[in-house]
Structures are given as structure tokens and as C-alpha cells.
Amino acid sequence: MAIAALFAVVAMVDLERLSGRASTPKGDVSGLTANDMLAMMDSSDMDPIAADAIALAKKRAYEKHQKELRELKEKAKRDAAARRKLEAQRERERLAKSNPSAAQNRAYGKKMSELKGWGRCWPSLKTLWEHESNWNERAVNPSSGAYGIPQALPASKLATAGSDWRTSSPTQIAWGLGYIKARYKDPCGAWAFWQSHNWY
Fold first, then answer.
1. pTM for the full model?
2. Quick one: DSSP state of residue 130?
């Protein structure tokens, strides 16, 4: 009986080899036949309802991912805007600490006006630029954009007096005195015109 059982096992192994259905080790696909592949595909056929459910899950996953990306981009924009606002505030604070006072700017103006030979017109110049900017070298007219102590318009005109025109009181004063000389002869004339027109 033992010999008969042994012959039966050997016969079964030979029949598997002959039929091409020998077992393939897991993970090894080199021994797969075309019939094996067809059988695998037949067994994995999916009905349309199941396919639709998978497609819907994929769609939802994609939309969720896109929503998360949009939220991240919006957050990045808000964070960048907040950083810019903070940096601008810090810059304003830094400039405020470094700004000369109105009294210092007036002292520059008086000295430079005297050097130009306009000592007698100092009261007119002092009052004129108090009305225009209160002697603040960073004063900006919100409606016209006029800038600085003499309220140059456009502001960039001040650059003809020096590249530091945005922050330098003497540069702005020099430009303003040049403008007054060209148009009004001296600060006395500029102030007289301002009193009649509220601009100069």
C-alpha cells in the first residue's frame, strides 16, 4: 500500500507538470501562463456600480486635496501679507526713531535760508512750510502725493537735489529753496502767494 501511495503522488506531480499548472512560488510571476493571466482577469471583473463607487471615492479624494491646496495657498498669502505689514510697521518705527525733529528741521531751514541771503524772509519761510508739512521730511499729502518739507509734486522731483531726498531734511530744503527762488524770487513772495491761493 505504501508503494502504491508513492506511485500515486509521483503521478500527480507529473500530471501538473504536463498540464502546465505547476504551483508558482508567491511573488514569482515568471511562470505565469497566458491561461493563468486570463483566469486572473476573469476573476477580477468588476461590476459598474462598484467601479462607480471607486471613481467617486477618487473624485472626492482629488477634490479634498485641491481644497487643502487652496487653503494652504490662501494661508500663505495671509501670512505673507501679515509679514509685510509687520515689516512696514517696524520700518516706520525705525524711521520715527531716526527722524530729526521739526525743530531740528527748522534750524536747518533757517541756516540755509540765511546762507542764501534770505534772513529777513525767515518768518515767511517758517510759516509757509509749517502750513505745508509742519517741517516733517516724511510728510505726504494723501490726496495729491506731494512729499516732504516743501511738499514737492511729484515727490520724485526732490531727487534732483540728491539721492537721499526721501529722508534728508537738508536735501529737501535745498530743493524747496530752489523752487521758491525760480518761481517767487524769495520766501516772502512765496508766502504772500500762499496766503492768496492756499498753495504755492
1. 0.53
2. H
